[in-house]
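Cross-posting from the modeling subforum.

Setting up a comparison between two proteins and wanted a second pair of eyes on the formatting. Protein 1 (sequence, then structure tokens):
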Amino acid sequence: MFQTFDVTSTPETGPARLNALRAEMDARNLDGFLVPRADRFQGEYVAPCDERLAWLTGFTGSAGFSAVLANVAGVFIDGRYRVQVRDQVADVFTPVHWPEVQLADWLKEQLPNGGVVGFDPWLHTVAQVRELTKALDKTGIELRPVGNLVDAIWDDRPAPPRNPVRVQPDELAGQSFGEKCRQLAAELMKNGQQSAFIALPDSICWLLNIRGRDIPRNPVMQAYAILGATGVVQLFTNAQVGDDVRTHLGADIGDVELHPLEALEEVLKKSIDQAFQIDPASTPHAVLEIVEERIASNLISEGQDPCILPKARKNEVEVEGSRQAHLRDGAAMVRFLAWLDAEGPKGALTEIDVVTALEGFRRETNALQDISFETISGAGPNGAIVHYRVNEDTNRAVNPGELLLVDSGGQYLDGTTDITRTIAIGDVGTDEKTCFTRVLQGMIAISRVRFPKGVAGADLDALARYPLWLAGQDYDHGTGHGVGSYLSVHEGPQGLSRRAKTPLEVGMILSNEPGYYREGAFGIRIENLIVVRDADAVAGGDARNMLDFETLTYVPLDRRLIDATLLSGDERAWIDQYHSDTLQKIGPRVDGSALDWLKAACAPL
């Protein structure tokens, strides 16, 4: 099994660790210290050695941070984690609703007479430090870069990862890494830059057509890179780079110069003497501090990570790879759902049984490299915990008469999948069906929308919420996130949310996953992956360049939960067509009882 069910944190450890951190703060004359979730590579998912927030507080969510002061320790979490955080942290920590409450405002309230707040400059980006410094101007609160205080008290901290790197073949990448480097270098030269710093591991892996194993569920290595205007890349990593990867990269002798991670500071101090570009959204503040000692500030420019948009715009080879990965994954999901429909009503299953079975069906493809994140299997009220992770302590029975929310995905060499289905275990109530149908209407609205070029995800997000809003309901997460090509399951900058301001472009893959959650009762989420494409012309329409979405995920929706009386004719037609397409695409990939189940599940409404 890729997934385990160990209890990785407990509230009982929090008070002693918080006391130890406060003693370290006192020894360094600090009034506060910031503990982010992110590692020095700004990852959402981090290696065990970088689980500082979870180690200190017990909170294991993939987003959030803590601000520890002498008399209060805030844990800042968004709407996805407000149920989870109460179960995971001791009462010495205070949950703070973020972004409704901003860190600067909270600090000003807690430190009305000012104070010194320490932070690790490797764990906070240039933009984060700049924004917080500006917000604290003239308050008497000073931000001070210091070493990492959590590391100083974490006696049994795991060692950093040093795992093997593998080549991602050109036939799966769709373009050689040399071509990518030359194209991006030409842009740098055009903009008058001599080099650009790249801080994100998935950007580096995409650029160099390599994949790693340093981060669970994400095929990336921990690394930094500097792309030169000549196309040469300086790569800084402690991952295991074998002879095959060195040959692929031409490491040390050609396109890539290979360095240990620890050499970054020395190279920056000795080699950077001309125009140098950083992305303030991803570059650690420590890098800016080092470079500012080397070159004049007017030689440091700011621009977006040069890989971000090209990586997001999947080429046709990557899109086709994603299609194939989803068909393979869809067949595994159908076998799983057929099994679940047979076993669930018997009342003998647990949430762990569900996760174990689903991973087994994916493994039977003989193509699964990893799961793309920890499978969410939330039965009944656990489904209302948006990013619920089942463990031995929380494992709940899957009871007839309840909803089961299963959010999961697979990592395949040709693509990354992410799918959520909410399933009725036996007969469920009318209220659950009504809420499910509203969520489904929102998912259909995104699936069907056409929009002009230049439109961003923030412009579309409300379409998915409209049916819920009419009923006075909503959900506290974005409608969709970007997805990589055998890379991170959460990829920027594309998205479907109020914060997603990047215009959508052809080739961008996103999730489409509205939901509804009733604490203590049930959770509903329905998720397909979609890819942006050029829309076909409409008879009588204006001569505008329009885009729409191609659906990548083909797995039946639970027809037992659909209240067809709430649907429009167009919505009914979309569901029937989706199920017809699902049967046509997935039917040849399954047989026996799974095929019989699929035919019944895809029957017209």
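Protein 2 (same layout):
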Amino acid sequence: MSQKTSIKQWIALGAMGLGVFMGLLDVTVVNVALPTMVRDFSTTFTDLQWVLNAYTLVYAVTLMIMSKLGDMYGRKKIFLGSLILFVLASAVNGMASSLLILDIGRGVQAIGGAGMMSLSMALVASNFKGKDRGLALGILGSVIGVSSASGPLIGGYLVEHFSWPAIFYVNVPFGILAVILTVIYVQETPSYGENQKVDLLGMLLSAAGLFAIIYGLIVKEGHTHWDWADLRVSGWLIGGTIVLLLFMVVEAKIKDPMVNLKLFKKPHFIGVVIVAFTLGAGFYAYNTFLTALMQNYIGYSATETGLRQLTISVWSLVLGPVVGILSARYSKKWMISISMLIGALGFWLMARAISPTVSFVDLWPGMVGMGIANGMVNPLLNTAGMEGIQANEMGMASGLLNVFRQLGTTVGVVGLGLMQDNQYETYLNGHLASINMPSPALSGLKKALIDAGPFSGHNIAFSNRLSHAPFAHDFQQIVIKAYDNGMVTVAVSAAIIAVIGGVAAALLLQHNPKSADITIKEEN
């Protein structure tokens, strides 16, 4: 490999990494802008929820479709088209004059984000060879880890200094730069779909099934007191499951399926997607609750919260390239397994640190454990996910990996949130009766706290009106301890999820410590 070619490849990696960073950042960056949007659009948080949900839904639904199109017609073409679509949608979102336009723009933006995310890993694997491939995938894993954790910091800074449209406008110049670099430096992959028919039925069924399941989870997240058996929740979940089962039946029978189900006959690949799912359900989902703890209860601003969360994300920058090199020499199986257990220890330390007087000083040791695990597992997972995959299916393998990671995040946010709500409500029911105040007023306050949920209960307890009441201190302490009970449960549950991921890695991943390259079986 010549020095000139090598430089071009690293610039190509920069272009793909920039696309991935923007696509994943926009999953979380909007959170900190919601209060400003509420004022500017004169609306409620409930109405604004679809600014978040539109991106999450469309992103998850289109990941596999964009992966398949890239495998069939050239990954660079689809990646580049996705990047351009993302930039255009970002500009429209920044100029949006109504919530409807913003919601539609977010959905279109998510299609671009899905295309960039799903094809970047396969493009990196095909643009690099030998030991450099492991290093490049490690760097890409670093980008994934950093982008997922840096939303509060970047979003907070932009909103505080430029208002909410800036979180979309910032994508335009960086996106244009990524487009130019992609056109010049990224090498195209073969078009494997020249003699194939597009599996339209498979694409439709996969999109419908994933949409129904994720939408059902979103409905449950927004209505925590609805029972799982409620048809407004279970109808979506059961319907989505049936559609995905039908999808698998169709894929097993047609000549050119969207997804080669034989991938799931390999224990190694099953292990990879389980780790991806637990990474989303444990680590990425927990970030939502950690951000609420630091902003709503400790009282840090969005920017202050983001700066402190660098304790987690900085490890991805430090460890990603190092892990990429080490993965060529040592067993990815055990590196992933041990890293997940380090993450579990981090969550356990977080659970131990939670108290009514908790501060960053108490939290940082656990955050370091989470950061080390995330910084190790993400790049290792990228490399392990590409092992033994045929060249014509690398995009789909990458897409599946990202689908399970995103699905895990959604399931984790809902599941951990329900556990937190249950512990929060149980503590309130058991301790509010000790407050010396009239029963009707106490019942009204309890209902208000439960309806508001753990995230917003602090605002009620510390409102100006209640803060001057004679029972204020005792009341506020009960609300804080109720929240703490829920947060301890969330942290312990995340630790258990991380342990499951570590055990799955130890039992299912291949042990290949001497492999210096990724095996890619080219088709004739």
